[in-house]
Structure formats: structure tokens, C-alpha cells
Amino acid sequence: MKTLDYFTGVSWDWNKPPRRLLFNLFLSTLLLLLLNQTSQAQSYNRLERLGHSSLPGNKIQVVLELASPLNAAPPHFSTDNPARIVLDFPNTSLNTTERNVNISAGAVQQVRAVETEDRVRVVINLLRMSPFDIQQVGNKIFVAIDGTAMGGSSTAAGDRNDPVSMVTQQAAAAHRPTMPPPATQTVAAYIPPAELAPVFEASTAAEPLAEPLPTGPAITQVDFRRNDDGAGWIIVEVTNPNQIVSINRGRRDRDIEVVFQNAVLPSHLDRRLDVTDFATPVNSVDAYPQGKDARMLVTMREGVRYDYFANQTGRQYIIKINERPVEPEEESRGLRSKDPVYTGRNVNFNFQDIQIRSALNLLLSPEVSGEVFNVVITDNVNQGDKLSLRLQNVPWDQALDIILEAKSLAKRKFGQNVIIIDTKRSLDARDKEELQAQKEIKELEPIRTQYIQINYAKAEDLANLLYSGGTADQAQRFVSDRGSVSFDERTNTLIVQDTESYLTDIRQLIEAIDTPSRQVLIESRVVIAEDTFAKELGVKFGHSLNQDLGHGHGIVMGGKLEGDTVYSEGTAFTSGGNTFSGDYLNSNSQENFIVRLPVGDPAGALGLAIGKVGSYLLQLELAASQTDGTAEVLATPKVITANQHKASIIQGQRIPYRTVSDQGAQTQFENAVLQLEVTPQITPDDRIIMDLLVTSDEMGQQILTTGERAINKREIATQVLVDNGETVVLGGVYQQNRNNSVTRVPFFSDLPLVGNLFKRTQKETSRRELLIFVTPKIIRERS
């Protein structure tokens, strides 16, 4: 009897001996095991070895050996700061005990492999970003890294024929993240295993070889320390005690660039110092040569504010970096800023149809962000959503916001390193629920009573500010619907009843505004300068009788002013009707003039007898007067007042005048005063805005028709902005009067030579100037 086994396809003959049956059973089991191993090999791979080798031209080749060949080059990307190359191997496990290989040669510092649930990630840490190329040969992945910085010289012609040279003419752009190349790509020639440095020899190969000491200026040691106050000290040993060093902030605010001019950096110091564990503002220190100089790039932690200063003592150059706390004003300005400030590391991405969850996990990974985040992505984020992006030199936190905005997502950060990602609608609804819950909690809080002593302000004014006291529809700004505010005028105390949260806000408000008012001293000077000049020339021409006094005297010349007496034996130019009594002329003596153009108040006069007609004499009298005057009036009112409070000072007199009405005659008064009225306002930058009214009135001339006195009024009203202690001229009035007049006798005044005897000339000139000066001074409070 024969039976067919449907699982193995073997026909069994139960009539044959048992050993034949056992043999067939063994073959079936072996076949099943082989099929199972083949299926596992096709679905899962292993990374079995990390290695590296040196290439001509200061190039380093990193070799990754897998258990099975890949269908295509692994996905990869790079970051500029820190300089890294990252390769991902999906469905791969790590089958080696050596997971960190220190190379410290060329531009490569270290190769590190990390295993997760579904992949292996290989991170190549670089000293600085350099051109690289990735190729696959069988089950090996070769990463060739140039020793020059990005944008350096291309590969030498002698290296192009090297079968292991992977650097192409486009190596300057090869560091950018690209999609995996197709499986049909051309790969380099196979590298014999003998040429690869084994993993356990990596540390030996990384040891620097002995090199000759430099003969010129050089750096011999770079060290980092942390002092007691948490500051980071970078100590650089130099051979030249007069080394020229320039230190400046880098292109990013978090970088400091230090250049040691014409100094040699030994190859064993061409490296990066990762000082994150020192808990200082410094994250890393990169030392590298560039041309004839030795350079150092100091990178700070993200978001840290710092100050730095450097000094050289002998052969030690020390850079001290301290963390600077955020000032309250700067913090408030940051809260009011509408545009976010991104400080993350710059990254480059180029992906097509990448899942949104994968993109988010990649951005928030430590290799990209430089920080360790705990990420929670809710179920509202569709796992099947995909997006394509191409970003170059974009901060990773900005790239995260761009991706979230593109998919209508948002994030919330809890604590230091927990981020929740959800849809905007869900997060907004959650925020709304929290606000509603907080509002309900506030409405259920118990009412408390607080007595607040007011020091400088008036309790009544603060009560009106806190509580409008209007209708129910009127908004109450600082008091809840259940709260109330009253005050005691005698003790200047506020009595507030409200919940604890509102009471806290009210106390903070009162502490901010219940402060002493600043005071201002205002000095004003009113200057009135007056200059007058008057000149007058007059003439009298007439006749008089020649009197014989009886003792033989004849005509006598002499001067005469009106009202003067005539001495004995003198001759007066009087008319014939005049008589003498004793030695003096009678009081009824009269002067007889043909032309009478006298000077009003002559300073001097000269009388002449210029001819005789019979018994009559022709007489001429000349009179002249000149007046010069200078006057200056200075008034200096001063007043002290509080900020934004009006002050006034008045000095002068009140002039009475009479008015007549139906009720009879009344006496009223008009002010003729010097007045200063000012309202100052102190600006935050200690300047002063003043509303000014300056008045300088005085009593003027008498009005002939009424007999009352006029009032000369001078006033200026203005607003000015003045620095503290600065004197400003508010304004001025300059007045000049000129008066030239001639009184003459017609016809005779036009005669040549003698015409001036028939004229009177008057010249008057007056100048008057008013200037007003103001000087405000802020009174400083005692410390």
C-alpha cells in the first residue's frame, strides 16, 4: 500500500523496511529547513562588519559589510552642523560587537552603528562637511569621503583611475540627501578584503604617528574645562607668546570663530571636542587648519544666550564663555514677537513620497536635531499620508514647522523633551476645553477680602481704575463679575473682594502703578531789552526893543531859556512894552517871535542879536537836545511740579479801572503780571515734554480820552520736547521804531543857506526785544 504525503510530495510504501521510511523522513525535514532559511535570508539582513581604509589624496573610505547583497544603495542623508553622514538599512540587524569605530583621520572622526526594531542606522561623524560618494559592490557598501571641505579642489587626475576612488567631478553636491539610486547603477570595482582594515584594528590605525615639531608659530594643545560658576574655558597652548588671534561671532549667533594667524595646527589636534557633558554653554569645539592659519569653531547649545571674552597670558590663550540669563524686557519682547525664531541645526533633505510619520521621526531624531525628544504622534495623524520635500540649509525646527503646516498639523511641547503632534483641529479643541475648564474653575473659586495700603496714589483713583462702577453691560477690566472694590479715604486704603486669581492680578497692578511721581524743576527767564535814541534841533527868530539901562551900556548877547530869570544889567530880548522894576524884569515880560520852532526840552540854547532896525533888535535863538537810553528787564520765575501735573506761578500787580453801568460806577481790576504755567511729562528716555504758557504784562501809557492806563501784553503758549537740563528759547519779539519829522516855515525854509533857520528837525529811534528761555531739570530721587 502506497500513500502520498501532500506536505512533502513523497510517496510512502508501508510494505518496505522501516529504515527506508526513516531516510525519506530525514530528507523531508532537511528540505523544509533549507526552504525556511532561504525565506529568512530574503526578508532579513545583517550588518556584520565595520571597517575603513585610507585612499590617496587624504581620502577615507568607510566599508560596511552585510550578510547579503542589497537590491539598491541604502537611503541616506547628511547634516552640516554637526557634520554627519547617516545611512539607514531597513530590515537589518546588527551582528557585530564593535559598534563604535574611532578613525580620526582626514575629515572622519568616528563611525557609529545603532540598531532599532526594524533597521540599523550607521552615523559617520565628520570634522567638517566634505564631499562624499556611496557605492555598492556585492554585499559591501563603500562610502568615500574627501579630506577637503565642501567647495574644495576636485580629485586629482592620478586618483581618477584608482578602482576605489569614488569621488566624482560632482562631489561638491554629493553630500546632499538623495533618493536611493536604481538597482542598475554602475558600481566601482570590487575591493579585495585584504585591503580593508579590520574592525579590531581601527583604534590602532587611528593613533597619530609621530610628526616633527613645527619650527614656526604653532598650537601645541587644546583643552576644555568647566569652572565653578558653570562657564566653559577653552585653553589653547601656543608657541608664540605674541600670537595674533582674531575672535568674532560666526555666521550663526551660536557660533564663535577663532583664527590663529600664521599658526600651524598638528594633525593630532585636527579634531572635534564634544563637551556636551560638561554642562556649559558650549556644545563642541572644532579645530582645523585653513591655509596658513589655524582655525577654531566653537558651537553653543541651542537657544542659549552667552557672553564671551578672551585673553592671552604668556603661551596660554584662554576663551571664557558664560551663560547670560534672559532679561525680563527681552523675554517680553520675545513673547510679543509674531515671527518665530529658529535656532536649530541646518539640514538638507530630498525625499519623494515619504510617509509623514517617517519624516517626523527623522526630523526629531538625535542625529538630526542634536537633542533627545520623546515624541507622541496621535492616531489623528494618518499613517498613510505622504509628502515630497526638498530642503537645503534649513534649520530642523523650521523644517518641522513647514511639514506640520503642510499637513494641517501642530505640536505642543511639554517639559523639556516631550512633544505631542496632532491635527490643528484636535489641539485647538483641546485648548478650548482647557480654557473653558479654567474659566469654570475661576467662577467657582471662593471670594476673599484683601486690604491694600496705598502709598503714593489716591485710593479713590485706583478704585475707579479697577472697577468701572457702571451698568452690568459695562466692561470691568480688572475685577470679576463677583468682585467689588471700595476705599477708605482717611487711611488711603483699598478694600478688594474677589477670587484669589483676580486678587493676585490686582496686587501686581497696584505694585506697578503705586510709585512716587517723578518731579521736574522748571526755570524760566524773561529778558526785555530796550534801546532808545532821540535828537532834536529847534530855532526861534524874532525882534525886541533895545532898552537903555541908563548907565551907557548897549546891546548884550546872551542865551535865554523860557522861564529863566534875567539878572541885573542884562539885556532881555523883549518887546517894547516890557518895564523893569529894580534889578529884575517884570513878570509881564513877553517874547516877540516871528518864527517859533522851539525844542520841547532843550539841553542847551544860544541867543544872538543879529541885526538892528531902528530901536528894535533882530534876535535868533538856537536850541538842541539829544537823548540816549538803554534798559534791560530780567525776570526769572521757577517752579517745581510732579510729572504730568500742572503748576503755575504769578508775580505782578492788579491795575484798577472804573466802569459805568446801569448799576452805577464800579471799580474792576486787570492783571499786569509775570506768569509761568507748565505741565511736564517725563518720557522713558528721560526727556521732557512741556505744555507752556508764559505771560509778561506791564502797565502802559495813559489813554488821553479816558484817563485809564493801557496794558502792554506779552504771552507765548507752546509745547516743546527738551532734553534733561537743556535750555531752549521758546520765542522772542524784536520791535524797532523810527520817527523822523521836520517842522518848517513855507518858502523861507527852502531858501539856500538861511533855510535851516526856519526848520525844526526831530529824530527818534527805539529798539525793543523780548526773549523767553526755559530750562527743565529732572529731580533725582535719593538712593
TrEMBL record:
Name used for this protein in its record: Secretin/TonB short N-terminal domain-containing protein
Q: Which family does it belong to?
A: Belongs to the bacterial secretin family. PilQ subfamily.
One biological-process term from Gene Ontology? protein secretion
- One Pfam family name is Secretin
Cellular compartments per GO CC: cell outer membrane
Subcellular localization: Cell outer membrane
Swiss-Prot/TrEMBL keywords: Cell outer membrane, Membrane, Protein transport, Signal, Transport
Q: Return the PROSITE patterns for the record.
A: T2SP_D
InterPro entries according to UniProt? AMIN_dom (IPR021731), GspD/PilQ (IPR001775), NolW-like (IPR005644), NolW-like_sf (IPR038591), Pilus_4_PilQ (IPR013355), Secretin/TonB_short_N (IPR011662), T2SS/T3SS_dom (IPR004846), T2SS_GspD_CS (IPR004845)
Which domain of life does this protein belong to?
Answer: Bacteria
Q: Where's the Secretin/TonB short N-terminal domain?
A: 373-424
Main localization, broad class: membrane
